[in-house]
Amino acid sequence: MDSFPSFLTSSTTLVFLLLLLFSPCNAAKHGTFGHHRRPRSASHNYRDALTKSIMFFEGQRSGKLPPNQRISWRKDSGLSDGAAAHVDLVGGYYDAGDNVKFGFPMAFTTTMLSWSVIEFGGLMKGELQNAKQAIRWATDYLLKATAHPDTIYVQVGDATKDHACWERPEDMDTPRTVIKIDKNTPGTEVAAETAAALAAASLVFRKSDPTYSKLLARRAIRVFEFADKHRGAYSIGLRPYVCPYYCDFSGYQDELLWGAAWLHKATRNPTYLSYIQANGNTLGADESDNTFGWDNKHVGARILLSKAFLVQNVQPLHDYKSHADNFICSLIPGTPSSTAQYTPGGLLFKMNDSNMQYVTSTSFLLVTYAKYLTQSLKVVNCGGAIITPKKLRTFAKKQVDYLLGDNPMKMSFMVGYGPRYPLRIHHRGSSLPSVSSHPAKIQCSSGFSIYNSQSPNPNILIGAIVGGPDQNDRFPDQRSDYEQSEPATYINAPLVGSLAYFAHSFGQL
């Protein structure tokens, strides 16, 4: 809905506007927190959770670790990555509990970390620098992966052989196979997502490091041009390497729209607005698709583009407000078009495998869209049910609180947060003794005795968010259960923004 409900009288409109004005988002802007009124008490220490959610990325680092590395049980690894193809691909992140560097989810992780900082970095205080370092660890790698025109290195490691071993990244002896896309073997989705990541990150560093920011923006432009010109799904040409791990199921149209949206935001070049106008209907056609994650960017693109209309008044993008509203209406229980499924304990449930990624990404979209609505004094109309920004924030908070421990298991799904959290996560480095305590190499198959044991992981991967409970709120905490017990960078990345918002809202930052 693009205006206030007609049934509001002038006096109630004034009250409604005042409520919107002094919502947490605007209260922060006008400096009322910590001065004129105290925020209500929080059920969780969001600041502590924020610190840990960012620290997690240090546990996923590949390459030469810096002196200020906080997760100290991790050591250098993958120092010859890229050598098989005579390129430097040292650095970047392992995506989850294995030792492969997959470019597609790494790029999405980078985009979401950057979006978190773009929207809520101003609230992060001391954590902002850590968040930017997490982004830069990824972008330094993505710049290496895109150094050659019309070529993107999209994977390091043979996933099948890697998954046949249970060994620390520091001990890797499986092939570090280098996989690339080019004109002959295109990969539009991974190329467009990489362009989105570089463009979003260029906004993060615009003030603090303008030279680096310009480099990221220039590379994003070139990579997106390649993605659009040489169209084709990478999971067709590279199927033996990327499937079934990060097969693309949603097509590459969503990444083209998403990439163009980020380039429009980063460059303000009207070419990208024209591209979105000309291609938006075909690229973002399926409005019933309300999933947002590493594979599917439709909803994220709609929310991002709605800001250009709502806040910057870019009129050609007015349709994205209604597209974004449709997503909101599909989520909120009790509205006429609600289709989302929830566990008995109230958790958004999309699928068994790594469901928490959809919880964190959806919660981020809710607090972000609430911010845009507040800035533009708008609401969402779901078939007559008026959804205010406050309701979106309340809904997002319930999801985040469930993740942090308000659930039937009374368990935090973030490792190291709260009194009870997963102890046997599906993660090689965390589950095997660290190089510090066990310098001798642990061979490929030797680690499976620990993998199959019931002993807790010796190394705490602080801040790691696991796949989460099943549709009945059950969580067995078994190392072998990768669907529920494996952490991943793309689960954590969107939560960083939500935690910064709630930490600020409750006066913890």
TrEMBL record:
EC id: 3.2.1.4
Keyword flag Transport: no
GO biological process annotation, one example: cellulose catabolic process
Residues at the active site: 426, 477, 486
Entries under SUPFAM superfamilies matching the protein: Six-hairpin glycosidases
Keyword Secreted: no
Matching InterPro entries: 6-hairpin_glycosidase_sf (IPR008928), 6hp_glycosidase-like_sf (IPR012341), Glyco_hydro_9 (IPR001701), Glyco_hydro_9_Asp/Glu_AS (IPR033126), Glyco_hydro_9_His_AS (IPR018221)
Protein name: Endoglucanase
Record lineage: Eukaryota, Viridiplantae, Streptophyta, Embryophyta, Tracheophyta
